[in-house]
Each structure stands twice: as C-alpha cells, then as structure tokens.
Specification:
By secondary structure, the protein is an alpha+beta fold. The chain folds into five domains: 105 residues, Orthogonal Bundle (Helix Hairpins); 91 residues, Sandwich (HSP40/DNAj peptide-binding domain), CATH 2.60.260; 36 residues, Ribbon (Chaperone, DNAj Protein, Chain A); 73 residues, HSP40/DNAj peptide-binding domain; 35 residues, no CATH class. The longest helix is centred in the first third of the chain and has 17 residues. It is flat. About 7% of the residues have low confidence.
C-alpha cells in the first residue's frame, strides 16, 4: 500500500468528489484502525498512509499541488505531508461517528454524556433456566437477583470519606494523549477511568469499588413461546445510580429439553414408534400433543421416517401468538428376535404372497444370465 499514490491508497478515481473521498476514507480508516487490529504493524502502517492521503486529497489547494507535482510538490508545505495536521474537521467528524465521540465530544476529548464517576453500568444481564413447559406456556417466575447501588460511606467514589486527589497518571485531566504517527488521540485515562481524580485511601465499606450489592427477590412474567437465547427486558430492575435511577435487567433464557417433544423454533416434533405389522396394516392411534391427545390415522404401508403434520398444534410465537406445527415422525420397529412359532408363521405369511414376496428373484435371475453370457 505504501508504494501506491494517494488516489490508489483511497481506492478512488482521480476525479473523485469530496463525498466519495470521505466515504472511501471512512471505510479504510475503520478497516485499519489500531483498535480493531491490535499488535498488527501492517494495519497500523496502512492506517497512517490512509490518513495522510485523505488529508491531502480533501484539501483543494494541496490536492491541486499533488495532482501537478506529486508528493514532492508538498514537501515544505505547512501542514503537508505525513507530519502535518492541516484541516482536521472532516477527519474528526468521521472519527466521532465511527468511534463514539459524538454528543458534543471529539476524538481529542470534549464533553461526554456518560458520568465518568459511575463505577458500574446501570443495565445488567442474568441467565435463567426454564423448564420446557414453562417456556411453551409462559409462567410467573420468582427469581433472586443482586443489583449494585452507590456506596453511601464514600458517595460512590471508592475513597475513604469521599476524599479524592488529582490522578497522578493524567495530572487530573482524565485523559492521556496517544501519538500514532502524525495523528494524536486523547483517550480515557486507564488509571482514573476519566474522572481525573483518585482515592487518597480506599473506602473500607466497599473495598474501593464504589458500590454495594443488594439482594432482591422479584417476580417476572415470562411470555409463552420464549426459547433458548431469547432475552427479556425487565425495566427498572437494573443497578441503581447515585441519583436513585434504576437501570434495566436483561434476562437471557436457557430452555431445558423434553424427553419426548423436540422443539425447532415454533414447530414441535414427536416420534411415533410403530411395530412393523401396524405399519403394514394401518390403524388409528392416539399421540400426545402440547394440549392433549391427537388422533392419528395410519395409512396402510406407511413408511419409516414419514411425517404427518398438524398445523396450529405447535408453539405460540412469542411476538405474534400464531402457533407453529406439530410434526409426528414415524419410527418403524422390527422384532429383535423370533421364536420358532413366530418364524413359522412369518414364513407361512411370506409364501401366501407368492412371487410378490420374492421381488429379487426375477430381476436377479435375468441379470445373472446376462453376466454369465459375458464370459462365453
């Protein structure tokens, strides 16, 4: 990539408009950004040359010089080349959109809507096991949770008596400036997490965590039709902020399997074992469904793994309520052993069908005759 000219670097034509340049730059900057390619020297080098190319081509004056004289024409220009900053408005606008610097802030710092002194997120997630029938029909579930609330003894600071001093790592700025080639980025201080202050001594009540955990028991309405991996939002049951506002609790379900019913989305499968004589003769039987018994009429000569479908007898869709299908799959059972009497009766039955009971005879006799002729 280093050997390409700036237009090739951004993968655009020489008559590319400003909007095309910006779109190309956004795509490549996201692709090669160091945060997305940790410890990747090649990606880091590409990221630098992409920024260099965009700085030049997005500036009409520099672009005109570059088009006429190439890189050599930019040497000595104020803000030109790989070491300059030039007009950074578009670059920072793109980085704000890509890496979360919006809300009045920028990649060089600025305001943030997040309270940096809040040492925990207000929303949190738990996993909840459900029995097969609880997920199918819905239920009320009483569950134990633990949520976080700001430590009163230290006012959520983690410091003894709430006494703080300027962070020794960032000198109270809350940010540290990182250099990546010709670009500078302000990042949250890793020691004080953007607060700009650190505890003089640790709070004994919360062990410097800034919060206490409170046990609670809540009752949640589980809607019918939930499945493993589905997530339910319980509004107002999350962690508690210093202001008293509660976040949300997110419950992720893990549904247990059933001994006989197999679920696939909103469809339910049930295996129907049949003795081979039932399959041959055909009859009416009853099978279980989610809401009681179903009558199943077996046609004569039904096959192994054949499926009979009952619409509207499956699981209710968790969003719309429409039920899926119940699918009964036949499994033909054959005897594992025969008594002498049973063998005698089966042979008698076989002979009663005559030639039909030996379908291989005529076919193979003809085939064997042709094979023998091959060697004459």
């Amino acid at each position: 990539m280093k050997d390409l000219d700036y237009y090739d670097v951004l993968e655009v034509s020489r008559d590319a408009t400003a909007s095309v340049l910006k779109k190309a730059y956004r795509k490549l900057a996201m692709k090669y950004h160091p945060d997305r390619n940790p410890d990747n020297k090649e990606a880091e080098d590409n990221f630098k040359i992409v920024n260099e190319a965009y700085q030049v081509l997005n500036d009409d004056k520099k672009r005109a010089i570059y088009d006429q004289y190439g890189k050599a024409g930019l040497e000595g220009q104020a803000g030109g080349g790989a070491g300059g900053f030039g007009n950074m408005d578009d670059i920072m606008d793109i980085f704000n959109n890509m890496f979360g610097g919006g809300g009045g802030g920028s990649a060089f710092g600025g305001n943030s809507k997040r309270d940096p002194s809040q040492k925990y997120t207000l929303d949190f997630e738990i996993n909840l096991d459900l029995a097969f029938n609880e997920a199918i029909f819905g239920c009320k579930k009483e569950i134990d949770i633990k949520y976080k609330t700001s430590c009163e003894d230290c006012s959520g600071t983690g410091a003894k008596d709430g006494k703080m001093s300027s962070c020794s790592y960032c000198n109270g700025q809350g940010q540290v400036v990182m250099q990546q080639g010709f670009m500078q980025f302000a990042q949250e201080c890793p020691k004080c997490k953007g607060i700009g202050k650190e505890a003089k001594s640790k709070c004994n009540s919360c062990k410097a965590k800034g919060y206490q955990e409170v046990k609670d028991k809540i009752t949640i309405d589980i809607p019918a039709g939930v499945d493993s991996g589905n997530r339910l939002r319980a509004q107002g049951y999350g962690n508690k902020a210093k202001s008293g506002r509660r976040g949300d609790l997110y419950i992720v379900f893990n549904v247990q399997e059933d001994e006989h019913f197999i679920r696939n989305g909103n469809d339910i499968y049930v295996e129907v074992p049949l003795f081979f004589t039932q399959a041959l003769l055909g009859e009416s039987i009853t099978i279980p469904s989610l809401d009681g018994e179903l009558k199943l009429d077996l046609k004569t000569g039904i096959k192994d793994k054949e499926q009979i479908i009952f619409d509207g007898k499956g699981v209710a869709d968790v969003h719309g309520g429409r039920k899926g299908r119940l699918i009964a799959q036949i499994k033909i059972i054959k005897p594992k052993s025969l008594t002498d009497k049973q063998r005698e009766l089966l042979l008698e039955l076989q002979e009663s069908f005559g030639i039909e009971s030996k379908p291989h005879s005529n076919i193979f006799e003809e085939t064997l005759s042709r094979v023998k002729n091959w060697f004459k």
